[in-house]
From TrEMBL:
One of its GO terms (biological process) is lipid transport. Belongs to the OSBP family. Residues 1-105 are annotated as: Disordered. This is Oxysterol-binding protein. InterPro entries: OSBP_sf, Oxysterol-bd, Oxysterol-bd_CS. Residues 37-52, 62-79 have a biased composition (Low complexity). GO terms for molecular function: sterol binding.
Length: 483
């Protein structure tokens, strides 16, 4: 089978129209309101100096042309803004890109009324019920990370996930799956303000791992060794490794996989994000499923994901989750229903959640959970006893370990999006827009090349099996090959 070129897999190519750093001026940072991008932005190679003073961005409809330099005094330089923010340069003309991603300091969006002409232009492109997949949203609403990295936040409490494998009975394991699942959504939203992660580029990959707190006796007895054939070859068998890949662009589908070898537990999932305009809000349907696999118990727990809603998009936008989700184990016949409740138009509370957990063949739950998915959730057992089930406000978030940007492969998320991230970090919206346009234009050019030459895109890490995206080398497969 012919295979088309992979984006950024071997090298970062120079984008046509790039201006040398010595000639490029600083673009006006007021943000575009429907005008054409003016020039292309360089896609930074790890070995090249990162010079956010270069302008430009690939036009989505026209061949890019060089922009006349603006007065450097018109906008504070990125270097000066870096100095003011305390960001440490890591070399001549470069910044600490890793800290840009780690800093949790996205400014509040405030009211959209201040961006009236941009919002008006956006609304002129859409109608109620319209699919928003191909609608270009303004750059200033972006969150400084890829959607692939946001999916890693499902495992921001790796101890809750890994402990599923430790428990002795099917009921205990199902309850622990529910506990991990209910705690898996709050970390993905760093604030109530609705910011949108970057749409991953086809072939983009994100990798990380976590140190798992409160290691069990069995963990401590297991020698620490690198899992060189796992998703993160530099992580050990006692750490939880994670990898995600953008496996499709139209429709946009992300696949992700996590495992801890010591406990012989893994997770494989995929999400197709389908967005729809609802008038005063936007809905993102997270279509797909995930599977928790416990090798020592030969159990699989199948689950799905709630939809996300961006509310009040004309004033101060905020995010909520909604929809009914299920968790089922075919082997043990335990199941759970989870309801993410959207706020009523009048009155009511935000972010409510309700869950019921059922024994095999039972119609009445032996456990119910109520509360807020980004706050406190209380459990009530069949005998009437109640207890704190999850308190996301007191749970410590375990920081993920990500390879430094300078050491990443060219198709990894943080290095691909670092110019966009730098532009957003220093509020240079034109530069962020131009860098984003350059990435997206390269993706379109390569798709056109494949179509014209009869080439087929092939994924690197996941295969489509029936309707599910499956990691090519899961733990169960590798262990069976060893035996």
């Amino acid at each position: 089978m012919n295979v088309g070129p992979r984006i950024f897999e071997d090298a970062v190519e120079t984008i046509p129209g790039r201006l040398p750093a010595s000639e490029a001026g600083v673009a006006n940072s007021s943000g575009r309101e429907g005008g054409e991008p003016t020039a292309t932005s360089p896609l930074l190679h790890p070995s090249l100096p990162a010079s956010p003073q270069q302008d430009g961005g690939a036009s989505e409809d026209a061949t890019p042309t060089p922009q006349s330099p603006s007065s450097p005094a018109s906008v504070p330089s990125p270097q000066r803004k870096a100095s003011e923010s305390g960001l440490t340069p890591v070399g001549a003309g470069t910044f600490d890109y890793d800290r840009m991603y780690e800093d949790d300091d996205d400014p509040e969006l405030g009211s959209m009324e201040g961006h009236g002409s941009v919002i008006h232009h956006l609304l002129s492109q859409v109608k109620i019920g319209m699919d928003l997949t191909k609608v270009v949203l303004p750059t200033f609403i972006l969150e400084r990370r890829s959607l692939l990295e946001m999916y890693a936040d499902f495992f921001t409490h790796p101890d809750l996930f890994c402990q599923i494998a430790d428990l002795g009975t099917p009921q205990e394991r199902m309850v622990q799956v529910v506990k991990w699942y209910l705690s898996a959504f709050h970390a993905g939203r760093k604030s109530e303000v609705a910011r949108k992660p970057y749409n991953p580029i086809l072939g983009e990959v994100f990798r990380c791992y976590w140190d798992v707190p409160e290691a069990t006796t069995s963990d401590k007895a297991t020698p620490y060794e690198l899992v060189t054939d796992g998703p993160i070859p530099w992580a050990t068998n006692n750490q939880l490794g994670f990898v995600a890949e953008q496996v499709s662009h139209h429709p946009p589908i992300s696949a992700f996989y996590a495992e801890q070898k010591a406990r012989r537990i893994s997770f494989c999932g995929h999400i197709w994000t389908k967005s729809k305009f609802l008038g005063l809000s936007i809905c993102v349907y997270n279509i797909g499923q995930g599977c928790v696999s416990l090798l020592d118990h030969d159990e699989e727990y199948i689950l799905n994901f709630p939809s996300g809603y961006g509310r009040s998009i004309l004033t101060v936008p905020w995010v909520e989750l909604g929809g009914t989700c299920q968790i089922t184990c075919n082997k043990t016949q335990y199941s759970a229903n989870v309801e993410f409740l959207t706020k009523p138009f009048y009155g009511g509370k935000k972010h409510r959640i309700s869950a019921e957990v059922f024994s095999p063949g039972e119609r009445k739950p032996f456990l119910t959970v109520d509360g807020e998915w980004n706050g406190v959730m209380m459990a009530k057992w069949k005998d009437g006893a109640t207890e704190m089930f999850v308190d996301t406000q007191k749970m410590g978030i375990v920081k993920k370990n990500v390879k430094q940007v300078a050491q990443q492969s060219p198709n990894e998320s943080r290095i691909m999006w670092k110019e966009v991230t730098a532009g957003l970090k220093f509020n240079q919206i034109d530069q962020a827009t131009d860098a984003k346009c350059a990435l997206e234009q390269k993706q379109r050019d390569e798709a056109k090349h494949r179509k014209e030459n009869g080439l087929t895109w092939e994924t690197k890490l996941f295969d489509l099996v029936d309707e599910n995206w499956i990691y090519k080398q899961p733990l169960v497969k590798r262990l069976s090959q060893q035996n």
